[in-house]
Each structure stands twice: as C-alpha cells, then as structure tokens.
Amino acid sequence: MVFSSNVFLFLFLPLFLGLYYLSPARYRNLLLLTASYIFYAWWRIDFLGLFAAVTVFNYWIGLRIGAAGVRSKTGQHWLIFGVVVDLCVLGYFKYANFGVDSLNAIIASFGLEPFVVTHILLPIGISFYVFESISYIIDVYRGDTPATRNLIDFAAFVAIFPHLIAGPVLRFRDLVDQFNHRTHTLDKFAEGCTRFMQGFIKKVFIADSLAPIADHCFALSDPTTGDAWLGALAYTAQLYFDFSGYSDMAIGLGLMMGFRFMENFNQPYISQSITEFWRRWHISLSTWLRDYLYISLGGNRGSTFQTYRNLVLTMLLGGLWHGANWTFIIWGAWHGTWLAIERALRIDAAPKSIRPLRWIFAFLLVMVGWVIFRAENLDVAWRMYAAMFSFGDWTLSELNRAQLTSLQIATLLLAYVVIAVFGIRQFHAQPLTGAPKAKASEQTDGAPGIVPAANGTRSLAPSAAIDLPLLATRVALLLLFAASVLKLSAQSFSPFLYFQF
C-alpha cells in the first residue's frame, strides 16, 4: 500500500483516523501499531514476521544494554552483538544477490563455474527500520535515551506507517515523549492535512509527470547530447519532488496523529556546495550518518588524513545503503570526495548571499551524481556520460521526440521555476546560518558535509508559504489536490522512488 493510491486515501486512512480519534488515549499506540502492521502486510504478509522479529530483538538488546549500564563493557558487548545481527539481516536480504553476482563475475574471468543462488527478495523498508533499530540501541548505550520497557511503544515507533517505507529516518529518543504525551488539536490536524496534500501534489502532479521523460532518455541505446542532458534534468527534478513529496506526506500524516517529525528537506537545489547540499537533502539520513557512522569512525578527532578518510568512507557506505549496485557505491564516493575537497578548501557551507557561479557548479556536481544514481548499471551510466560530455548533437533523437509530450516538457520547466522561486525566496527569508551540533565531547563540528541545518522549519510546496490570502491559498490547494486525485485514478501505478531502498 502506498500513500498515492485510492485504497489508502479512501479506505485505509479515513478508517484508521476514525478509529484513532474514537479510541481512548491509552489504546492509541496499540491501534497505531496494529494499523502499521496491516499497512506493511498489505505488500507481503510473509515479511511481517521478519519485521516483528527485528523489532523484538532490538527491544531485548536495549533492555540488556540498559541493565548493563551506560557505556559499560558489558553494555558494549551487547551493543556489538545487536549491531552485528541487525547488519547481518540487512546484509543478507539487501546485499547477498549483489555479492554473489560480483563473485561470479570474478569467477567467470577464470573460466570457472559460477555459484547458483536463489534470488532473494528485498523486504520493503528494511533499510529504514534496521537503521532506526540500530540508532535506538546505540542511543541506549550512550545514555541518550533510557531503555524502554514498553514493547508496544517501541514497536509502534519502528512500525509507524507514515514513515515506514521511505523515511524520514526517525529516532526513538526524539519521539519517546510524544508516544507518552502528544497533543491533538484542530490546528495541528489541519496543518497535517495541508502538508499531506502538498506532498501528494508534488508526487502525482510533478514527479509522476516527469518520470516518463527520465525513463525514455535513460532507456535510449544511443542518446544524443540533448537526450542525455534532458534525462539528467528530468530525473534531478523528479527525484526531489518524489522524495520530498513522500516526506511531506509522512510529516502531514504524523501531524494528523499528534506527532511532529523532523524535516527532511530544506531546498537542497539552492545549495552552493556539496557540503551545503548535504545539510539540506535527506536531513534525517545525513544526521544519522553523522551521529552513528562518522562519529564512530573517529570524526575529526584524528589527523587531517583520517578526517578526510572518514568523510569519504561515510558517504561511500551511505551510497551502499541506498542499494546493492556499483552505481550507488560510486555515487557515494563522488559525494564523499567532493566533501573532502571542500573541507580542504575551507568552502563556506552557510553562505549569506547567492553566488551564481558557485551555485551552478554545485548544481552540476549534484546532477552529474544523479545520473549514475539513476542508471541501472555502469554501462547505462557510461552511455549517458559519454553523450552528455561529447557536446555533440543537442537535438533530441527521433525516438525521444516521438515519446515526449509538450505537457511533460512544460511540467519540467514548471518544476524548475518552482524550485528556483521558492528556493531563492526561502534563502533570503531564512538563510542557512549553521547546523545543530552534537555534544562537544563527540566533536562533530568537523563533519561539514554531513551536518544539516537546523530542521525546525516547515517546507511547503516545495518549502515556503505563499503570499496569497489564506482562503484563496486553501481553495487553490484543495483544487490541485482534487485534480491530483483524478490524475492518480487515470494513470498507471507509480511507486515512490525511495521504495527500492
């Protein structure tokens, strides 16, 4: 089940919200857990057992660490055991096929018989719920949150359906108080509905309209320079509106239930460096990488070389987290290398003014990275790069012209107008002046590429309020949402891009 589907909009969500607000407060977390398991089982019920087993296992590990004591030797042993088991589960389901295929490629070069392994299906959302489970047991070990004895609350935290499939990556320490005490007001519910509709419009109206452009261009066997750049531009916009649209919808659903989740995007395409980009893009993941990977590797506490190594390795592993493919590993290395370069050059990651040349350069670096991120394999990536940088034929190929419509091209132009207008407007309204730092003892201020900006701002469509009378704004939003629902009913199924991770 996905948010952008009729069964969710007209059956699951109204039924859940009705039961939720009719239930006594003490039963709402249990109802949320039950609904979230139904939501997950709608995809495949057999993987629900794995999901529940990972949850119970980390709940038990948390209790063992809590009983051993904060940062104790015994607690450390339990932590290592828990992290290893979690990573083994993730590794088996997500990387076993990739590992066998890579090994077989090496074996084939020696003329030997390859291994034959049954294809392993990737459980949806496993990257997110495993990462959230790991963050919980690490936080218990560090003393950042006490080990909870309430299995229902912990299971509901891991399974809460608004963020279950594609984030944001939440942390128990940030939500534990809201599970115990959260407010339900008409204003918060209305804010949640508004945010959900904005995300829905971004996904259905913009991202889904751009998807055919990117698909056509990346599928061409001999793209022209024009085809390749068009595909790169289309995917760059599609991914942002698709993923930020999902995050908006997740945050909106949380507000409807009284939860306030962290922001996940802060106008990333106005960034003037890769360092700034990672303060604005997928904020929940960048903070996770900072707090649980970069710090664990040593952060900036060692030599200059070790700091650069930690930056590159963090992003390399972050790329691998996105998927079992060499394309993601290279994408992570690309970003990690630029983070290290910018740190060496002391690039300002919180500029006070827009410098067009720096912005263009940073945007090109991001877009070039998205090409290999989107490509099915290295051959497709190489084909696209060769076309992009041959600077040959800038016209579109005949096959591409036959596939594309004027409405799709108009939507692409509109997408970039929206990004530019709202991005520049928010830059002047609330510039990126700094990033929240972890405790001084953890020395995280040396990780500029993976420390996000303060995330208390709300991102509307895409991330700013519109200067129109409130009533007119709401009417326009409702009309666009209604049109999006009609478009959803008419188009074929289009899952969120981050479901594959």
From TrEMBL:
Chief location category: membrane
One function term, GO molecular function aspect: acyltransferase activity
Example of a GO biological process term: alginic acid biosynthetic process
Localisation per UniProt entry: Cell inner membrane
GO CC list: plasma membrane
Pathway the protein takes part in: Glycan biosynthesis; alginate biosynthesis
Transmembrane segments: 40-63, 75-93, 105-131, 151-170, 311-334, 354-373, 402-424
Listed EC numbers: 2.3.1.-
Membrane topology of the entry: Multi-pass membrane protein
InterPro entries xrefs: Ac/AlaTfrase_AlgI/DltB, AlgI, MB_O-acyltransferase, MBOAT_fam
Superkingdom of source: Bacteria
Enzyme class: transferase
Signal peptide boundaries: none
Alphabetical UniProt keywords: Acyltransferase, Alginate biosynthesis, Cell inner membrane, Cell membrane, Membrane, Transferase, Transmembrane, Transmembrane helix
Sequence similarity: Belongs to the membrane-bound acyltransferase family.
Name of the molecule in the record: Probable alginate O-acetylase
Source organism: Azotobacter chroococcum
Species lineage: Bacteria, Pseudomonadati, Pseudomonadota, Gammaproteobacteria, Pseudomonadales
